[in-house]
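Tutorial sheet, problem 5. The two components below are modelled jointly, 565 residues in total.
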Amino acid sequence: MKKIWTIAWKDFRTYFTSPIAYIVIAGFLIIMGWMFFFNLSHFNLQSMQYKQYGMGGKGTSITEGIIRPLYGNMNVIFLFLVPFITMRLFAEEKKMQTIQLLMTSPVTLGEIVLGKFLSAFLLVLTMLTLTMVYPIILFVFGNPDLGPLFTSYLGTLLLSGCYLGMGVLFSSMTENQIVAGALTFAAGLFFWLINWASQSVGQTFGEILDYLSLIQHYNNFSQGILETSDVLFYCSFIGVSLFLTHRVLDSYRWR
Amino acid sequence: MIDVSGLTKLYGSRTAIEDLNFNIKSGEIVGFLGPNGAGKSTTMKILTGFMPASFGSAKIAGFDVFDQPIDVKRNVGYLPETPPVYLEMVVEDYLDFAARLHDVEKAKLKAAVSSAIERTGLSQVRKRIIGNLSKGYRQRVGIAQALVHDPKVLILDEPTVGLDPVQIIEIRELIKGLAGQHTVILSSHILPEVTATCQRIIVINKGKIVAQDTIENLTNRINRGVLFTMEVKDATSSGISALKSLSGIKTVQIEGPGKLLIELNPEQGELRDIIIEAAVREKMGVLSFGSEKLSLEEVFLQLTTQENHS
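Model answer (C-alpha cells):
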C-alpha cells in the first residue's frame, strides 16, 4: 500500500516537473470557463425572457440549464484530454527502460499498476477541484440544488476513471506514446458511441450495447440520481482495465 | 549467497543460455566475461527477477528467484545495461524514490541517500536534474540507485561502459571497495575489466559456461601446451610411437578413427613441419593437419582482440 503511494506520488510530481500538467490543466480550464460563461449567459437570457413574457411556471432550473450541460460537456473534454495524461505512464518507462527499476524492486505488479493509475487519477482530481469555482459562483448568485452537483462530480470522476483505466492499459501495450494515446482516444469514443446501434440490432443485443455504453450510465448521475448499478459498472470497468494491464505487463516478462 | 543450477532460457526456439551452474560465496566479486550476445545480460535479468528462466533454478540469499521474487529483490541491487534513471528527476529525489521502492525505513531514508551519493561521488550534482548530467554521471546515478538500500547482492551489467578512462578507474575502485560487505556480480566483454576488479571469473560463450575459476588458474590453463589435430589414412601404432618420440611432443592421443590429437610441451618453437615429415616418413597418409583451439582460449582470444579494437 505504501509503495502504491510512493509510485503514484512520484508520477504525479512528474506531471508537474514536465509541461504536461500545465498544458492539460490550462487547456481544460480555458475551455471549461468559456462553456460556463456561455451556459450562464444563455440561462440568464432564457430566464429573463420567461419573466418578460409572463409564460407562467418557473422556467428551467439551474440544474437543467447550467449544471447538466456543463458537466456533460466536461465529460467530452476529458475524453480528449485523458489520452494525453495516460499515454506516457508505461510507454515512456518502457522506451527509456526505466521500467527495469520498477520490475526489479520489491514491488508487486499490482502495486505498480495501481500506483500508475492513481497518479493519473490524482491529476484528474486536481482538475475537477479547480472547476469547483463554477458551483461557488452559482451559490453566490443563485440557489442551485446540491444533489445533482454532487452526483455530477462523482459521475464525471468515475467516467474519467474509465478513460484513465483504458489509457493505462494501452500505455502498457506499447512503447510508443502516440500509439498509446490514439488507442485510448479511439477506445474511449467507441465505448461512448457503442449504444448508437442498440435500436437496430435486436432487443437482447441492444440492451447489452446500452449497458456497455459509458455515457448511458452517466445519465442518472447528471439528474442527481445515485444508482448503485451505475457506480458498480464504472468501478468494474476500471477494475477490468487494470486487471488486463496487469496481465499485459506480466506477459512481457515471459517472452 | 548465489546458487544457480541448470539455468536455461529460451527465446522462442533460440537458446539464450543453456544449463548454467555456478555458486557465488558471500562477499565475493565475480566477473561474468563473454563476448556480446553470450547471455550475460539474460542471466542477470533472471537473477534479478526481471524475467523468469525457462528451466532450472536460482537462489539468492536463500530465496528462490521464481517463488520468492519480493524477498530476492529486496536483497539485490541491480544496474541494467542502460541505467534506469528518470531524466526529468533530480538526483536526490530519484535516489529517495529508489530507496522507498526498496523498503528502506523512513527514518533511514536520508542517511541511505546521502551515503549512496557519497560513495558514488555524486555530491556536486545531487541537486541537479539527471537529464542534464553527462553519461558518466548518469551511470554513477545508476550505481547509486543499486547501492541505496545497502543490498547483500549487487548485480552490475557492464558498469563501466561508456565512461572515460578516469571514470572507469574510479568506478573500478568503487566496486573493489564493495568487496566483503556486498557480493558483487559484474559483467563485461573486456578481459582487463574483470581482471582489474574481480576475484573470480565465469566465462560465458554462446550461452554456456566455458570456464569458472580464479584469474591465476585460468591464466595457467591457457598457457598449457599447444594442440594440433591430424587426420591420417592409416594410424599405425609404429607411426604413433614415432611421433611420440619426437622431441618437444608431450602426448599423442587417438581421438577417433584416423584422428590424432597431438599436444606439445609449452613454449616449443615451430614443430609442425617436423611432425608432418615424421608422419609422411611413417607412410601414415596425412589427410589434414590443423591447430586445435580450446574453447576457453577461443573466447579469450576474441575478448582480447576486441579490447585491442575498441
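Marking note: The longest helix of chain A spans residues 20-52. Full credit if you identified this.
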